[in-house]
Amino acid sequence: MMKDPNGFMKGLNDYKAIIDEMRIPPQNFAAIQGILAEETFTPENMKTKSEAAAGVCNWLININLYYDVVVNTEPKRLAVEQAKIDLAAANEKREEMENLVAELQAKLDVLMGLYTSAMNKKKSAEDEAARCERRLSLANRLVSALGSEKGRWSDAIVKFGEDLKVIHGDVLLASSFVSYVGPFNKSFRDKIMDDNFIKFFKDNKIPLSSACDPLAILTDEAKVAGWNNEKLPSDRVSIENGAILTNSDRYSLIIDPQLQGVTWLKEREKASDMKVSRLSNPKMIKILEAAIEIGHPVMIENLENSIDAVIQPVYARAIIKRGKSKYIKMGDKELSLHPQFNLYLHTKLQNPHYPPEIQAECTLINFTVTESGLEDQLLALVVKKERPDLAQQKETLIQELNGYKIKLFNLQTSLLKQLAE
């Protein structure tokens, strides 16, 4: 075996591959187990005899150990190979399942999109149905709320239809009343209205209500009650004066010896921070200039028969318009006119004599208390003193009526707004 060292070494080197391929019968290794078990069969012992024998001994011991390792690990190796095959099959199956899952997920996404779209349409339809139901409920509430008003509205429609036929004459009469009767007392006012205005309307066949009352067009009971609470006397002349003052575009010049009109105006304009001054006040011009631009009302009281020409552009409403802005020129100053500004001129003279241009540029209102006016005021005071229950009942009814009108209007506005939404 050793006569060819190279061939012998090659055989030894190839033996490992032969073992790996399991081409060596197991009995070959079983046959050498007795030799390997001998105590003298060691490389050290063999080395004392022969170096070559020691090498062959060492090779036998190690090749036997290698064979034992190969034999013991072969099932595991086969199991690993089988596991690899199973893994590849599993990966292939997994990939197939993933492709199937992706395909199903794509179909699911399409179906979910259709489902979401259908649910959105359903929700939109439900919301629209709820909105329609709510609007129907509101409409029913509105109809129910206004059902009690049907009769009154029907009568009002008929009345309004009749009023439309004479509205031009009634408004013209009320405008004439505001423009011309302010300077006169009650007897002259009645004479002007009956013997001049109404006679002129009838002679010229101008449509006019049979019992036309300018106060019915210029104001209402709620406003009059508010004026009375602001200390305006409750007689007819005082109420007419209040209607003229609040409905005139021109600034008012008040003839008020008893100071009843001034007392009312001060109470009425308390919230507006009205400035009260006199022509003798050295700061009057500055007060007036500031009020014009800020928007505070101004009262110039205790006028004599002459009025300072410096304030003439103000009471004459000599307004300069530039675009949407309005200005008043006082002396060398051009003041921006605030829309809330108002001017009240007051005199305690019972029979003042003003130039015609002042009477034309201002609304002259006579607050002088006459005998009949004083009787009306005393009657109101007596009723309030002797029968406070009747006075309170009247005031309560007026307040309830005014509150009812406001509530009805707010309810209609709210319901119509909700219906519009």
Essential attributes:
single chain, 421 residues, alpha/beta, Rossmann fold, 4 domains, five-stranded parallel beta sheet, three-stranded antiparallel beta sheet, 16 helices, 8 strands, rod-shaped
Mean pLDDT: 83
Task: Name the CATH superfamily classification of the largest domain.
Answer: P-loop containing nucleotide triphosphate hydrolases
CATH class of the largest domain, named Alpha Beta
Question: What number of domains?
Answer: 4
Strand content: 5-15%
Description:
The protein is built from 16 helices and eight strands. It has 421 residues and is of the alpha/beta class. It has four domains: 5-112, no CATH class; 148-218, no CATH class; 220-386, 3-Layer(aba) Sandwich (Rossmann fold), CATH 3.40.50.300; 387-421. The chain is rod-shaped, with a radius of gyration of 58 Å.
